[in-house]
Amino acid sequence: MFLTHFKMSDHPFSEKPPIGWLLADNRFDQAMARLKFFQQQGNIALIIGQTGIGKSSLLRLFQQQMPQNLYHPIYLHLTNISPSSFLRLIVTELGESPKFGKDRLFLQIIERIRKNEIDTVLIIDEAHLIASQALTDLRLLVSSGIDTNLPLKIVLSGQEALGSVLKRSDHADLVHRICVRCHLNPLTKSQTTAYIDNRLRCSDSSEKIFEAQAKDIIHDYSGGVPRQINNIATACLINASTKNRQTIDEALVNETMTEFYLP
Prior knowledge:
This protein has helices at 2-5, 26-41, 55-65, 83-93, 102-115, 132-143, 161-166, 172-176, 189-202, 212-222, 226-242, 250-257; strands spanning 44-48, 71-76, 119-124, 152-158, 178-183. It is of the alpha/beta class. The protein is elongated, with a radius of gyration of 21 Å.
């Protein structure tokens, strides 16, 4: 395996690396500043970006840096379910046994959150898959006249399709309650190089394994999308190890890419 060949302590381009491996680039710095404001002052935050761009990594950093004595974070990503099932999922994650009937589920959520001595933060990943009615339900939770001081905050994170859904007139009330918006863009060429170098160093390896031109062309092939960078870099490491190569140059990246895409 390439880990042995390159004397790496761990897979440098794994999908979910240790949180200490995450490189806080300028994109994340700006997003975290907005999320910290939301954490202190807002009710709803919105994170949007294409698949593989780093939204889940940003959520991991946000949750990890959240003071646990002040906030109770609940991470949800199983969103492609019915609105009632989604409410039941929230109830379950709050530590309760869901009751029958949507009205009872609402009351369960409200009563359980009200009992908490700290703010509950619902962190909803894959939010672009949430049913339209479920988005309305979430808006009712944060703006219900039943309890105007309900200590609840919601983070919605999803692909660009989420933005299109929120533009619908029936979600105007929800959009008006979004206090911060974060749109994650792809990495620039220099950020891609820094990303690759950081991952190699974290695996106790050398950033010189990939030549500078190889890193540049990986950026071009990946479009600066971190997940694609991971996939391409991993394929290059495998290819290099099978050829007993100690470095990866532009030619090897091009060769690897000829077999990378699906037929």
